[in-house]
Amino acid sequence: MEKVTDTIIHIGVNDHNIHLFEAQYPVPQGMAYNSYVILDEKIAVTDTVEESFAHQWFANLEEALQGRKPDYLIVHHMEGDHSANIQAFMEKYPEAQVVSSLAALNMMKCYFGVDYTPRAIPVREGFVLELGKHALQFIAAPMIHWPEVFMSYDACDKVLFSADAFGTFGASDQEPEEPWETEARRYYYGIVGKFGTFTETLLKKAAGLDIKTICSLHGPVLTGDVSHYVDLYKKWASYTPESDGVFIPYTSIYGHTEKAVQLLAEELKKAGKEVVTMNLAENDVSYALTLAFYYKNIVFATTTYNGGIFPTMEDLLFRLADHSFCKRRVGFIENGSWGPAAAKTMKEKLVACKELEYTDTTVTVKGALNDVSVEAVKKLVAELA
Ligand code: FEO
């Protein structure tokens, strides 16, 4: 437990056993599930935690309550990592009311088979829950990350309870290995990033608030220069590249495509470009997806495979299209010994993506690099540099 302010206490938990968050994102530094108690004339608890941490969460809650009883359970978001203990809470504290959107109340019926409407305070945009000195103003935040999501703002301590927004991968009880934005960016693009316009709408609403602290549902409590985090979110929500460099995700079966990638990377570096390459066989696709959004220029390099493209590249392209990939310059390296068709197939996979500018040069490698394909690499360098 830690104090966020004198009257707001973090009662969340840290999961160091989890390997895959949401059954797909590797979280080598664990995961935090955050929940808070606001102590005032009335007491509000915000959200719960993942099911297997119920015991620890209730122990934290009881310690924070110091013999008092909670009046409200505020449900900002109904996904299981936050909502799993709603039913247990409502049974343990039969006089408490649940405060949530109508959509969340409907989801509670689905998950718990219980209609909490008689014990509910439904919220709409602008609704204010008075606790005493604290008054929570509710802000609709649909599709960040589910449709029922609301955030709330406490003008007393200038705290934004931001639901999944401004979250990150990694437990919060250990020193992070990298700056907040490294894993927050992977979290954003993987989990929230598909619906950038919804995030932009939310940021416009939040611009009118004096925010000193952001309490998200994952990761550390954010204080200090909050504009740093908000500015990053503005960039991410608008799909604006953060670097003019080049990202080259690739697959290579016997190393020949990799040699073409290495040549491209070396020549681009000589030309002064920042370059990152990534072998898709050795890295989880979520890291590649994030870098594809980070850089302005992406060169996809893969082999023709079963008349299509290599599976790990197909997975990356599927996920990019599914996450609203846009506003980038794109080039291709294809390899095929007798019928190279990978570039055409890769381009088809991106057909739904908006504002992509394609390079004039596509590098075709027939088995191994030769004079012709080396020349094509140099032409591609000239275009990208
Ligand atoms: Fe952290 Fe969308 O749940």
TrEMBL record:
InterPro entries: Flavodoxin/NO_synth (IPR008254), Flavoprotein-like_sf (IPR029039), Metallo-B-lactamas (IPR001279), ODP_dom (IPR045761), RibonucZ/Hydroxyglut_hydro (IPR036866), Rubredoxin-O_OxRdtase (IPR016440). SUPFAM superfamilies: Flavoproteins, Metallo-hydrolase/oxidoreductase. GO terms for molecular function: electron transfer activity; FMN binding; metal ion binding; oxidoreductase activity. Residues 246-385 form the Flavodoxin-like domain. Transmembrane segments: none annotated. In the N-terminal section; belongs to the zinc metallo-hydrolase group 3 family. This is FprA family A-type flavoprotein. It comes from Candidatus Treponema excrementipullorum.
